[in-house]
Amino acid sequence: MTVAPQAPLLFFDSGVGGLSILGPARAALPTAPIIYAADSAGFPYGTKSEAEIAARVPALLGRLVERYRPRLAVIACNTASTIALSAVRAALDIPVVGTVPAIKPAALLSKSRIFGVLGTDATVRQPYVDRLAAEHGADCTVLRHGSAALVELAEAKLRGERLDPAIARDALSGLLDQPEGDRMDVVVLACTHFPLVEAELAAAAPRRLTFVHGGEGIARRILYLTQGQSWPLTPRPGKAVVTRLDSEVARLAPALADYGLEQIEAL
Ligand code: DGL
Question: Does the C-beta of 84 come closer than 6 Å to ligand 1?
Answer without folding.
Answer: no
